[in-house]
Design a protein that fits this description.
Elements lengths: L7 E6 L2 E6 L5 H18 L3 E5 L8 H16 L3 E5 L3 H9 L8 E3 L2 H11 L9 E6 L1
Parallel strand pairs: 2-3, 3-4, 4-5
Antiparallel strand pairs: 1-2, 1-6
Length: about 140
């Protein structure tokens, strides 16, 4: 069964999860992404989560709200969330429409997001290695 290209990939790097959204997701795909990511935070005992939205040229109000919800759920599970890669046009539209990321930290790119987590998250010395999964 060909499921097509991955819409989202979730990579484990040490005690962090890096989730990359590769294309615009509809509402049901966003909910599935949220559920998968929150489940993996617990399974992997993640201390930090980076959500990379660099591939998105639009982020609607449902998507923005879902990202805020993910951040709050992750916090309740003991993980800090950083959103990276918000494109200039997306940032402009979000501000113009009164949407935001709430209390979530945002960073320009993956490197800056990792630096933020390294400075602000206590490491779990038992978490090593790299694994990945994807949503298609």
């Amino acid at each position: 069964m060909d499921t097509g290209p991955a819409l989202v990939s979730i990579l484990r790097q040490g005690s962090y999860l890096i989730a990359s959204i590769h294309t615009a997701l509809d509402d049901s795909q966003m909910i599935r992404f949220q559920e998968d990511l929150i489940e993996q935070i617990g399974q992997r005992r993640s201390r930090g989560v980076i959500i990379d939205v660099a591939a998105l040229d639009v982020l609607d109000s449902f998507g923005s709200k879902t990202l805020r919800n993910i951040g709050e759920m992750a916090r309740l599970r003991g993980a800090t969330t950083v959103i990276v890669g918000i494109q200039p046009d997306v940032a402009f539209a979000m501000v113009s429409l009164g949407m935001g990321t709430g209390s979530l930290y945002t960073a320009l790119d993956l490197e800056e997001g990792l630096e933020y987590l390294d400075r602000n998250v206590r490491k779990d010395p038992g978490a090593v290695g790299t694994t990945s999964s994807s949503l298609s």
